[in-house]
Amino acid sequence: MADRTTLTLALMDAPYESARSTTALRLLALAVRRGWNVNVFAYEGAVNIPFAKQAPHPNAVHGRDVEQEDHPNPKDWVAAVMAEAASRGAKVDWVQCGLCVDERGAAESIPGTRRGSPADFWKFVEASTNTLVIPTR
Amino acid sequence: MATKVLNIVATAYRATLEEQDDTILWLSHVLKGGGADLDVLLRGNAVNYAVRDQDASGLAFGDRRQTQPPRLDEDVARLAASGARVFIVGDDLRERGVGVDDLVPGVQPIAAAELPGLLGRYDRVWHW
User: Fold this and answer.
1) Which listed site, A31, A123, B39, B46, has its alpha carbon 20 to 30 Å from A9?
2) Residue of B nearest to A60 (CA)
3) How many CB atoms lie within 10 A of CB B8?
């Protein structure tokens, strides 16, 4: 089998706070569409991106109920990208910084993510074609 | 007498795809709807919120498509229509090549030099 390109992303931003987390997921989705493997090291607030208890809500300002609002939860975006990766024979290996998870009580993340540490980030870096850091500001 | 508040929005497109709106425009809508005497000033990159005919549709991750993309221009226009005054810094528009004709109805351009006078008319000024 030909070697696949492997990209590592280090993310820091919490969901619902900046444009960077959505941009990071768009890059992740594009890499997966190209059939690349992608490693993600979710650091600090980014561990809440795949938090399993996110829930959609209605929006009275928009005049829409919960179904009409179809409010996006990033955990679902992550799951969708993981499913697409699997359909293309690629893999998204998503590591949650364990200490960051503990600080935030965010242990319940969606299936396909796993607890890890900066040591996993370093392993990712050494095994990847390239690494993109998207820090918080 | 009611407390008069000016919400200043400077940072644009902060999590607007996830929220499907701007959080401070949304908060302004809610407070205004609750009876607050509240106006909004758009400055910096946020002046672009008032530009007509923005289209943020098309976002998709795998099989999940966003069905309700943010409509920030419409949110600004509705805020103005609700009775809030929506000011916009004309100097910031010009720096970005945005003309007044490009804006949704109801927003009021104001020169940067006029801001001290404007801010002085409010009991609370919140720079988000």
Assistant:
1) B46
2) B30
3) 20
The predicted-structure confidence for B33-71, as pLDDT tens digits, reads as follows: 999 999 999 999 999 999 999 999 999 999 999 999 999
Residue A104 contacts B where some CB pair is shorter than 8 Å: no
DSSP-H helix ranges across B2-114: 16-19, 23-33, 72-81, 90-95
Beta strands in chain B (DSSP E): 4-9, 37-42, 60-61, 64-65, 86-89, 107-110, 124-127
CB A96 within 8 A of CB A49: no
Choose among B26, B61, B63: nearest Cβ to A61: B26
Point out the residue among B18, B60, B66 whose CB comes nearest to the CB of A16.
B18
pLDDT of B85: 98
In angstroms, the separation between the Cα of residue B114 and the nearest Cα of chain A is: 30
Cα of B84 vs its chain's centroid, Å:
11
The shortest CB-CB distance from A15 to any of B18, B21, B66 is to B18
Contact A70 B67 (CB under 8 A): yes
